[in-house]
Amino acid sequence: MSDQSFRGFFARLEREHPHEVLAIDEPVSPKFRIQALIAELERRGRYPALRLSRVEGASMPVVANFFASRSRLALALGVPVAGLAAEVGKRSREYLQPVKVSGAPFQEVTRSGGEVDLHSLPLVTHYPVDAAPYITGGLVCARHPESGIETAGFHRIMVKGKNRCGISLHSRRRMWEWQRRAEELGRPLEVAVVMGFPIPVYLGALVHAYPPDIGKFSVMGGLLGEPLEVAQCRSVDLTVPAGVELVLEGRILPGVREPEGPFGEWTGYSSSRSTQHVVEFTRISHRRDPIYLDIAGGMTSDHVGPIAVTKEDEIMRALKRLLPNVRQVHVPASGAGLSCYISMKKTVEGQPRQAMITALSVEYYLKFIVVVDEDIDVFNERELAWAAYTRGSAEKMLFIPGGMGAVLDPMSDPNDNTITKVGIDATLPLQGKRAERLHLPQEALGWAAGVLDKHP
Q: To 5 degrees, how large is the angle CA 358–CA 364–CA 368?
């Protein structure tokens, strides 16, 4: 087996790709300052992983902004950036059953019962609006209460006390459904929150298009290219990825709801919408020298970038089954996961509208779709906007009222989370007079680049 640890890949980054890591050695407050560093880096167009060795009040270093760069995600999979989404899709369908190992480094130090104190961790407060410090870099693992199939996903965790947290399952996917079923049986849902995991494990957790009888660890194994090594927890009947830094074991309580939030969400707005579940932790386990992983809050690349990669593949696969001339799919960070751009070679009128309907049926978070011709690079938002403004028109727009929206979308109906969805056909007509796009000869462009290269 290869090294499946978080620290192994991070050490490789520092050694072989030092430009991908920014070490901050001066004291940093966990209150707003880590988030401020990331915000300023993004303003400057920089996306390094941050290693913070002196977080105030913390006994362990913090790594943040780790997932912000597509180049880093691609590096972990050994593929070019342009092929990242397709490779994630391909590997995530090559299911490999996990293998259980007898011991794991995260079991080196353990505390249980009254010794459990979440305040021993470098808890981060991301925004002034946040109701409390949040654990954002925790991957929540659980099993179906009847079939035993495992799942893993990200859910915001608000620290309320030494061992008590609020948790919101607002994605309404497997974790929410399994907690609901456990609650119907009058049982808590056992969970293990793991922190510090390699990039393929993270991407596997974000994949949603897989059969109901397949466990999430098998998806992660496909992305790793080998079976995921898992180890047994001590106080809950769960296994977790063996290469992680830290594990919190606990239970989501049945029939208990408490206020949770607000929290600065991926939409770029604060949100108090929550399922208001409560989790109590019974055990903390970690390496002797753990690294704490924080995922930036808000509409940051660390938060929304990797999610976009998995969505792009899922949408592209669905489109290709119906429309083989689709060229590109992009879920831009600027749209907070609520928008999608599609380029295609249109051969029949009506295909752009079919593409919109298909994309909306694949990803219910989406509410804005723009379809453009194949000459437009959907990863270049200036080109995309130009096409939308010059090739789109009101009569070519598609409106779908009452669509299923995202709970965290601030514009969705607060009563039932529905929203009107919009598609923009920004393709040129197949018949009649077509405006000719302006082009310069490649020779002239090459000459200009050469001249400007001498004047940096």
A: 70
Return d(Cα 87, Cα 224) in angstroms, integer: 11
Indicate the angle between helix axes 70-77 and 301-322, nearest 10 degrees. Answer: 70
* Four-way CATH pick for 6-302: 3.10.150.10, 2.30.110.10, 3.30.190.30, 2.160.20.10: 2.30.110.10
Cβ atoms of 384 and 371 within 8 Å: the answer is: no
The β-bridge relationship of strands 139-143 and 189-195 is antiparallel
CA 47 to chain centre: 16
State the Cα–Cα distance between residues 363 and 170, nearest whole angstrom. Answer: 15
CATH H-level, domain 323-426: superfamily: UbiD C-terminal domain-like (3.40.1670.10)
Q: Is 441 left (phi over 0), alpha (psi -120 to 50) or beta?
A: beta
Q: Mean pLDDT for each 10-residue chunk of the chain (456 residues)?
A: 88 92 91 91 91 91 93 93 91 94 92 92 92 94 91 94 93 86 94 94 89 92 95 95 96 95 84 91 95 90 85 90 92 85 93 93 88 93 92 90 80 82 92 77 91 87
Which tokens sit at 454?
């001498």
